[in-house]
Write a structure and sequence with these properties.
The structure holds two protein chains of two kinds.
Chain A lengths: L12 E3 L3 H10 L13 H11 L6 E5 L4 E4 H11 L6 H11 L6 H6 L5 E7 L2 H5 L13 H17 L21 E3 L10 H4 L8 E7 L3 E4 L6 H18 L7 E5 L1 H9 L4 H11 L1 E3 L19 E3 L7 E5 L7 E5 L10 E4 L12
Chain B lengths: L1 E3 L23 E6 L3 H16 L5 E6 L9 H6 L5 E4 L4
Parallel strand pairs in B: 2-3, 2-4
The chains are: A alpha+beta, B alpha/beta.
Chain lengths: 357, 91
Amino acid sequence: MQLSLEPSLTSKIHEVDDFAAAQEFFHSRGWTDGLPVVPPTEAAVAACLEWAGMPPDQLLGIEPVRTQPIRAEKLAINAVMAGCLPMHFPVVATAWQAMMKDEFLLHGVTSSTGGCAVLVIVNGPVRLEIGASGRFNALGNSDRATSVIGRAIRLALINLMDLRPGEVDRTTLGHPGKFSYCLAEDEEDTTWEPLHIQRGMPPGTSGVTVFAAMGPRQIMNEWTTDPREILETFAAEMRANQLHYSIYGGNYVIVVPKQLRDHIQGAGWTKRDIAEFVFERARVQRGEWANVGKGSVVRDRATKVHSALQSPDDLLVVAAGGPAGGFGAVIPPWMGSKTRAVTAAIGVCVDCEPPKR
Amino acid sequence: MRVLDPTNETRTAGVTLAPRLASFAGLTVAIITNAKEGTKGYFTHLDRMLREEMGVADVAWREKSNYSAPMDAHIVQELTNWHAVFTGVGD
């Protein structure tokens, strides 16, 4: 039932009896991911907007294909539902701004049968402010901040872009990252440059990188200290993805935990060195498709070489994971280079003035 | 308890459909494919039906450069050259 409108917030207001009634009200309208939600009260939503310094009607961007405007108030409502505190909201808002860049191809990646999720990688001082951990269980339920930020991305896709299964979301299988898929880099325990700085954000800023990503493919190599051998295992997993999923090159994320990092960093390798090595090693011949049941599409191009990365710049190396264990992860793209990872700085208006030369 | 509506209450303008054609006889139509493997057989069969069974004068084929993105600008510019367009999603 519609009641009245607050002076500042313009969303329709519904009245429910209590917390339990709110759950049934939201579930019955298809407004959730199936899990309980935090009721988005006017006070909670206003607190998110106040923290981010955003008026309710601030336009965060327009989804390019369906020309759907995304405004701060609506995004904040979904963030509250996901469990976000006000301090989490600037990360959610920045991630959405990045997702609406043309090169991310938001409509395509979220509606596709391919079924990827939006992976959000958080960098910079904001990680420490919000308690985002890049250590134990980094790709799982490592901490409150990454759990609720990742969930806010999905709830907003459901409610602002109609991405409900069987509606605009035409995904065949999907993966668990479609509930929440957010990772913080462990910048304190690595010598490597943080991902967002490597991707052009100003020093001292916090940043988010969004990536239309398939589920993580875990690797293990605890039997060598040689960076080349360790990275060969990552490259092999990328080659496997090329054959079993998609052969085409694009962005890939690799997550390197401390135990493997110590060997690679100890040998003096930078993220760039890793990317150049993997670029050379992660490639297959089209004819190898015949070994995995895809012989019908090899045709006369059996010797054509397909690289998993179009250039070393395509590899996003992230330092994260618990302190022990030689486990890493390869996170493949939704579909080659049809979508590109996008990085944005939090709270920095990159469009306000021309870049200083 | 008062809660806020999480959906996008402002809807985009949408599109207006063109008037329905009475017949395809003698017309020029286009097939815009998303270039996926499975579309080739489907649209090839449709092309034959249009020519042989419905009297279409000519069928132009265009292919999107990215199957998950809107059609390319140069294809949009050609739309006025055709009486009707067939497109769709194929895997």
